[in-house]
Amino acid sequence: MRILPVAIAAFLVASGAFAQQAAQKGTGLPTLGQDKGKLVPKGLSSGSAPAAEASMGDLVSRGYEIKAAVPNGGKFIVFMQKDQSAYACEFSSLTGTRCGSIN
Q: 16, 72, 79, 89: which could form a disulfide with 99 (CB 3.0–4.6 Å)?
């Protein structure tokens, strides 16, 4: 009967150590902030045509609406649409996002 509490305590300590180790390694994915990542082709202003990549804040300010959000492992994928243009944004953390055109 004494083995069960010891096993539970050992499991909790091991899981905490593993979580710290995983957080230190990081994901290795590039992250885009709310004001970064906006690419506009030469000769176009930021409001004239959709860019290949944009931040979530840029898309919302240009009138894109969230149509769906789905979990994907430890991340969320958010689909945004305006007229015939659509974007998918991947949330790897609360502030780490990257968005790209899907059409």
A: 89
